[in-house]
Each structure stands twice: as C-alpha cells, then as structure tokens.
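pasting for the record
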Amino acid sequence: MNFTSFHFVFFFFTTLVLGHLLKGRPQRIFLLAVSYYFYGVFEPYYLILILFSTAWDYLAGLAIAYRRQWEQNGGSRSLIARLPARFYLTASIIINLALLGYFKYTNFGITMLNDAHPLGNTVFAFPAESILLPVGISFYTFQSMSYTIDVYRGVLEARRDPVDFALYVTFFPQLVAGPIVRATTFLKQLDEGYSIGKNDIIVGVTRIIVGFFRKLVLSDNLAPVVNQVFGNPAGYGTLDIWVASLAFGWQIYLDFAGYTDIARGVARLFGYEFEINFLYPMAASSITDHWSRWHISLTTWIRDYVFIPLGGSRVGPIRTYLNIGVVWLATGIWHGAAYHFVAWGIWQFVMIAIHRVYGLSALGQRMRETGGLLYGIASRILLFFCLSFGFIWFRAPDMSTATLMQGRKFGFENLNESFVFNSKLLSLSNLHGLKEFIALLILLWVYELFFNKYQLEYFWKPENRKKLIGILIGMLYLIIAMTPAETPNFLYFQF
C-alpha cells in the first residue's frame, strides 16, 4: 500500500481510531493484522515470505535463550539445548541471507556467470529466472536478523510472545522502506504502553506534512528532468547531464526522506518514536559527514553488525581500509543487484578513504582550522561534484549508460568507448527549462541549509508554534497546488 494513495488515507484513519480504542494484547493483535493487510495489498504471496522469516527468527531467538538458560542453570539437557547458541544464530543468518539472495541476487549471479564463461553471449548462455522481488525484503530481513544477533549477544531478551515479535518485524509504517528499527528500541516502547499526548500529535502531524511536501512537491517535480535525460543521455550535452545527475540526487533523497518522515509521523501517532533516518545530508561539508546523515538506520546497522565485528578501526590501517571497503561493497550490493550498484559502492569507499587520509594529514587539519567560510563553501561544492558521479551509477539502468553520462559530463563522447573530446557537448543543451531547473537546485540547497540550522525541534517549541503553523499551511498549499497528476511510487520500494 502506497502512502500517497487514497486507500492508505482511509486505512490510516480507520486503523488509528480502532487502534486507540483497543488496549493491551488485543491492540497488538489488531496492529499485527492490519500490518499484514498493509503489506499483502502489494502482492498476497509476499506474506508467505515475511511469515516464514518472522517464524524462523522467533524460534531461533527462543532456542538461543533455552541454550543460555541451560548453560546458567544446568539440569537435564533438552534437544534444543544440546546445540550451541552459535548454531541457531548461524542458521538464522544463513536462512535470511539465502532468502534475500535468491529473490534479489539470483539473476545478477546468472549475469556474472554468463560474463565469466566463453559462451555467455551465445544461445548456450544461462537464462535469467522469472523472479518477482518482494517489496521491502531488504529492510525487514535486516530488521529481523538484527533481533537474533542481539539476543545472541545478550543485549536483548528473547521475546516469548510471538505476536510481539511479529509486530516488531511487520509494523506497517516502516515495513516497506524503513527506517530499519532495532528490536531494543521497538520492544521497549511496546512494553511501556501505547498512549499519546498533545506533543505527540504535533510532532506526528508535522512529520507527515513535511514528508508529503518532500515527496509530492519537491521530489516528484524533479522526476521529469531525471527521467528525460537518463532515458536518452546520448541526446543531451554536458550541462544537461550535470543538472540531471544532481537532480536525481535530490530526487531520491527527498523521496526517501519524505517516506521516512511519514513513517515516523504515523508511528508517533500510534505511540512509537523511531530514530531519525535523514539529518539534512545535503548540508554536509564532507563525504564522511554526508554519510553520518544519510540513511542513518542502514549505515549504523552495517557499522554495528558488519564493520565492528570485522575489527572496525581498532586494527591496523590496512585492515581498517579493507573493512571499510567490505562495508561499502556490501552497501552497494544491498541497494541493487547489478554492476552499477557495485561501482556506486566502490566509489563511496574511494571518496571516504581519500577523505580519511586527507583528514588525518597535517594539510587537512590546517585547512579546517584556517579555511573559514570560503573553505566551507568549496568543500560543499566539491562534495556535490563527487556525489554526482555516484548518483549516475545509482540511477543509470546499466554500466554502459553510466559511463556514457560520466564521459559527457566532461565533454567526452563515452568514457567506455572514446576519450575523444567534443567541444560541442559543452555548449549543447536540449533540456527544456534548463535555467529553471538550475534555479530549483539552488533553492533546494538553500532550503536544506535553512532547515539544517533551524530543525523541526526548533519550531516545536511553544514560542515558535505560530511559525510552525505558517510553514505547515504553506506546505499544504504547495502540496495541493504542485502535486503532479501522476505520482510515482516511492523509489526505495525497489530495494
């Protein structure tokens, strides 16, 4: 079910009213049922997978708990307690990654296999499988898997009630596209009870309106230029490619941030507070700063469950950079099963590694101390310059399209085929409304810098409520006036 559909509006208000009328376990059962309905609207058979994944990790958590209980108290050893806790953890991780691997990466594996063997481009090539990717599988797999890991680590007690655990995995606001909520956060709030006050309503409604504004007004109005140029990059010149690549960066950010704003707002109205997932990343001054603000729930998940177990930065410099490389390769592959997503992940690693070396150098420290305003502006411009390469890899349908666009950025016909400079590309512009789109990108940056300085917490203060009302009324007017006739799905549904 899409947040921007009338179906969701009716579903949300009905669920909100009935959810507040119920109390205790009946309330949890009701929320679980409506969450399954919310997910099943996309495709009913998706429910089989999420039910299996939920049941498997629920049982794995209990098995780990039984084993630990036997280790502490002794006594007769049951069949479950005979196997070590690590066995159940390993089984949980393998099953989760196997499901994710089959549905998301099977055809990518077939592509790589065909590329590797000599008959891969003939009639003897391995055929692609017809596999429908379940919506949100990357999100709920990581969420469910983190529960088992935390139980194994001893930071969380295994949940005995299957309804509680299933509701954690499938709670509808964040189910399809995050944020990736930790069990330690959700289950603690579940135990504390389900009640909201005036401040919760203000915060929840504000987030929902801001989320729809980001999605419908800002992101969706960037979609035409992005689709136009990425759909036929050979027909556009250097400036067009620059504008389209930057426009896509803003589009996917505002689309995804808009979704998580709505998810966090809806959850708050049900009495749950999810941690922030985007903290104005386009106002960042470096690639490291950027990734500390973008998709925070994913980056912290990979930090805690991949980077730190590998040794993090506590090992030597070579191992540290190797660990960072593994993290960004995994992040790229998590986003998509294709070579251009692998390239995108490697590019993030290259930028972060260079920035890390620069930041530890005497030159980097001196520039930060003495650079002043000019250094801050220049660093932000350089960041956008570098990010735009990644945006192309992320959005392009394949590597050949990406290399063509990256070449045209600098006046080359195609980086993959020709390094012949073509000065005509520098002056060629076939993008209708180019100046308006450039102005819009500048305005978006100003918007980002403003709200980075005056965040929503500032407007929630009682003395600033009038300003908040004015901003929300303006956003609602723009939502009504500027929402496109056709609203595309949220972009992260495909991941």
